[in-house]
Amino acid sequence: MVKRSSHRTSGCPVARPLDAIGDGWSLLIVRDAFAGLRRFGEFQKNLGLARNILAARLRHLVEHGILAAVPAPDGGAYQEYVLTEKGRGLFHLLVALRQWGEEFCFERDEPQVQLRDRLHRLPVRRLELCSHDGRLLGPDDVVVAPTPDRRAP
Amino acid sequence: MVKRSSHRTSGCPVARPLDAIGDGWSLLIVRDAFAGLRRFGEFQKNLGLARNILAARLRHLVEHGILAAVPAPDGGAYQEYVLTEKGRGLFHLLVALRQWGEEFCFERDEPQVQLRDRLHRLPVRRLELCSHDGRLLGPDDVVVAPTPDRRAP
DNA sequence: CGGATATGGTTTCATTTTACAACCAGATTG
DNA sequence: CAATCTGGTTGTAAAATGAAACCATATCCG
Question: I need a surface site. Which of A37, A53, B36, B83 has the fewest CB within 10 A?
């Protein structure tokens, strides 16, 4: 083998993120971070993965700027892992994963959980992709095209 | 080692999908399937991955009901791989991945592509998560709660 | 103070997965 | 009927994964 293949140099914005979050654990760590978990032990207990793997994943997520290791919130001697702006940007991705899981990965008679609006405690809508003028868009309604030059002047 | 850990039995709808699409290639295959690719050779050439890995991934995606291997569209001797309903359900997930990649995985001066409305060729909006009554929701505006019993009567 | 225990990892080693390359079989082409 | 294209299936080596053992600090408890 030569090395696990990297998508760093791909020009496709679907491919590049997979280096950072394209494994079986990273997104679950991020999910737990959204849920408020911060400490190594909390993640380890909640996810049940091997500690060396968790350490490697946390390091990886920190390197990719998704989590930040902050030194000590309450004067404790250890560090905590908190979501960065980039990490919080994964919210819609997690919601998409969740809604797809809800719809396609459970039998009808299985107990399940759902996302609700914190204010009224009612189920949220499905994610929506809209055109500039507000029409709902599906797979056949979009095309990919070059982004206009964004270089600083 | 015992076996790569599975999330099949997890009750969390974020975790379960990762067995099906939680690796570095599956989502790219699905992306290409959305783009209209169907044949083994097309995927292989476009993705540049090893043929045995592609064969394994395609088999895996078919087993999970994301792709279907249809026998022969034009009387050809080989099969083609097409998205199922479940596979098409991954649209929003791919869009979320794409938008996150666009925003956080490119330098300002890199050439890039974006998603546009096919009708007017204008950039699409960001994905939106809305409450039942249409308010835009962020990470702090939602909670998870048990889904009411959905068993058939 | 001194030992027990909790926390946050790293190390070791066996197993699995990934990747590349070579090979093979059936269909198509010349 | 030989060459070649398509769609795979073997090898084989490197790398990732996972369980358990180990280690270094901190904190608790008597």
Answer: B36
d(CA B85, CA A68): 38
**Residue B49 to residue A82: CA distance in whole angstroms:** 35
Name B54's Cβ contacts closer than 8 Å, sequence gap at least 6.
B25, B29, B40, B43, B44, B47
Number of domains in chain B: 1
How many Å separate Cα A90 from the centre of its chain? Answer: 4
Number of other CB atoms surrounding residue A19 within 10 Å: 18
CATH number reported for the structural domain that contains residue B38 in this entry: 1.10.10.10
Q: Which residues pair with A142 in a beta bridge?
A: B117
DSSP string, A67-97: EEEES-SSS-SS-EEEE-HHHHTTHHHHHHH
Interface predicted TM-score (ipTM): 0.94
What pLDDT, on the 0 to 100 scale, is given for residue B109?
92
In a domain, B8, yes or no: no
| A146 inside domain | no
To probe the interface with B, which of A21, A100, A130, A151 has the most B CB atoms within 10 Å? Answer: A100
Query: Chain A interface, mutation test: which of B32, B64, B86, B97, most A Cβ atoms within 10 Å?
Result: B97
pLDDT of residue B153: 53
Q: In chain A, which stretches have pLDDT less than 70?
A: 1-2, 73-75, 151-153
- Tokens matching residue B60: 């895996």
Q: Which of A55-59, B23-27, B77-81 has the lowest average pLDDT?
A: B77-81
Distance from CA of B23 to the nearest CA of A (A): 5
Domain that holds residue A23: 17-141
Range from A94-103, B71-80, B126-135 carrying the lowest mean pLDDT:
B71-80
- Name the residue among B127, B131, B126, B125 with its Cα closest to residue B143: B131
